[in-house]
Amino acid sequence: MAFAPMGPEASFFEVLDRHRASLLATLRIGCGETPGRGTHLASRFEDSVGLQMVPHCTTRKIKSDSPKSVQKFALILKILSMIYKLVQSNTYATKRLRLIKMHILHFHRDIYYTDSQLFGNQTVVDNIIDDISCMLKVPRRSLHILSTSKGLIAGNLRFMEEDGTRVNCTCGASATAVPSNIQGIRNLITDAKFLLIVEKDATFQRLLDDNFCSKMSPCIMVTGKGIPDLNTRLLVKRLWDAFHIPVFTLVDADPHGIEIMCIYKYGSMSMSFEAHNLTVPAIRWLGLLPSDIKRLNIPKDSLIPLTKHDQMKLHSILKRPYVNCQPFWRKEMEMMADSKLKAEIQALTFLSSDYLSRVYLPNKLKFGGWI
C-alpha cells in the first residue's frame, strides 16, 4: 500500500531522482558490492564499505597464566558463559536483573549489574563484548546482545516489529523511537525520495515543529541525537539496502559534526569489524557546509572560534584515507581550518526563524546542493 503524496510537485524531485539513478547505476556495475569482512582489529579503508579490518596486523593476546591478563581472561570467560546460557535457553536479560523471554535485549547492562565488583565499570563490559564479537566474527545481535536505542525516526515509513506491532512513522508532533531489534523488523514500506540524517535532536525537533516531513513529502528523517547508537546506524543501513534512496546528512559546520557524518558514512575504528553491516558510503553532505557560511553572509558574531581540541580533531579527519576520495569535503574542511571558525545549524536563524526548513533545505534538495 503506497502513501498519498503530500509534498512538492514531482518536478521538485528531478535532481534527486537523477542522483538516485546515478547511485543505482553505480551499484549495478559492482562498485557497491560488499567485500569480505576482515579478521583483525586494525583498520584500513574500503571505498565501497568504509573502514575495514586489515588481514595482517599485530594482535593482542590474553592468557590465563599471565598475571597481567588473568583478570581480563576471567571476565571474558564469565561473559561467554552468560552468553552461552542465554543463547541455549533462548532467554534474554533486562535492566532489572531478571531473565525473561523477549526479543529486545539490554544485555550488557545486566551483565554489569550482576557483578559490578568483578567488572569494575560499564565500559569494561562494553569493551569485552566488542572483543568477543570481533573474536567470533559475529555481530552483537548473534550473541543475543542488542544495544539500547536512543535515535528517532519520522516520515514516510511503515514497518512491522518482530512481535507483530505495526509502526507508522508519519510525521506528527512527535517522532517514533528507533527499534532495539532492527534485524527483527519486516514489511518495510516507503515512497520516500530521500532520507535525511539530522545530527542533533534539537534540530530534528525543530524540523518536526516546522512540519518539514509533510512539506517535503515523501521523505524520511532520522536522528541519532549526536554520536549515533548502533541501532540508529543499523536502521539507516537497512533502509539504504532495502530502498537505495539518496541519503543526506545535516550536521553542524564543525569537526564534531563532520566526525558524526563520517561514522554514518565510513564507520568507526571501534566497530570496523562490523562496517559491512553499518556503513552507507553513498551518504552525501547536505549541510551545514563551511562555504554556506560565507555564501549566506552569516555574521561573524554568530560563529564560534575553533578550540584547540576542534583543531586537533579537524587535523585528524583531514589525515584519514577516505578524505582523499572526497576532494569537495577536503576543500570545505580546509576552509574551516583557515578561518578557524565553526557554526551550528542554529546560526541560520539569523536569516529567519524558519529559514532552515523553508528555504535552506528545500533549495539544497531541489538544486543538488550536496557534496
UniProtKB/TrEMBL annotation:
<protein>
    <submittedName>
        <fullName>Meiotic recombination protein SPO11 isoform X2</fullName>
    </submittedName>
</protein>
